[in-house]
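Batch job 17 of 40 flagged for manual review because the log was empty.
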Amino acid sequence: MKIKSFSAPTLQEALLKVRTEIGPSALILETRKYNGDGIKEPMGKEVIEVIAAAPSEISGTASISPPTSGEDKAKGFALEKTANDAGKENHNESDRWDEVLHNAEPPLKKLHTDLLNIRNSLQRVACTRTDGWPDAVREFYGTLRSQDVDDTLSRTLLDNVMKTQREGEQENPDIIKQCLKAKIAEALLAQKLPAKDAKTQAVISFIGPTGVGKTTTIAKLAAKYSVNTEEDVALITVDTYRIGGADQLKTYGDIMGVPVKVVFTPQELRNAVSQFANASIILIDTAGRSQFDATRIRALKGILQAVPQVETHLVVSATTRYSDAIEIFNRFGIIPLHRLVFTKIDETKTYGMILNLAIRTALPPSYLTNGQEVPDDIEEAKPGRIAELIVDGK
């Protein structure tokens, strides 16, 4: 069965490609929207994908004409969703529907049959789209998807793996694994943190939702820099909303012998940075904000704008669903963001969100945290390390 994918910025353009190559009688098997992954298409740009085949190449499948009106398009998408949802019913629901359909009018029975045909066709398409891959490559597609790596990104990575393999290597799981790790590392925009110029002061703020571990992360970094590299570190907190937030950072500062300032306004933040002019690294803690609290996020933006040289890291828990992580990025994105920090990687075994978010946002990951121990449970988010988490699961 010959199935082909056609992609374009709009549904009309994608259908035109189908009509040009297959003809007006083409069967439309699947239509979906996705955002460009920055590899095949521009990052974040909406793309429409249409899966189609010639009618003679699919038997027992309901013919679906390309939608022409807005209402027809809506019906088409609704049929797709209904067909997908139908495959997820449990046995009790199936029994209930069997009884309903037994007593249903002929048109409803025919609609049910058509939907089942569509669902079966889509399932065959999903299998067909990996049929050209050797078993070893297909196995790693399953690995990526089980890690919640975006489907389009998973296929792109493995297509790139295939292109680099010589004859015979594509059946070798060890070679495929190493090559896949390399491709993930290449795809990541994470870079090794640049060596800091001794003459340049680094001012770094950490922002993000509540409960992701910003204060603990700052304490780990302060200990890392002040103890391990003997840098002059200073801490500033604008976390005055959370009870005990400022006190927590002060306690860490006292233990490490690092100065801490509490500020409430943009001017106080500017003054504190000036007072720490001799420090080589200033770490700024902020109060956690719900991504839906637009008012307080704007207030935080106003405070951080007082220090134009600040580098802002968005802190996200590795346990966050990808859709929620995108929401967090979009909401906090009114503040200029430079890097991503992923915390709590010890609380999950699914790491695809890290790759998805880094590719989608074009922000390089800076650090990973994997526990509560200060200063041990933190590491640089090196591309090779993230690739290991995804492919090896640890």
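Reviewer: the log was empty due to a logging misconfiguration, but the result itself is present. Residues 294 and 331 are 7 Å apart (CA to CA). Unflagging and moving on to job 18.
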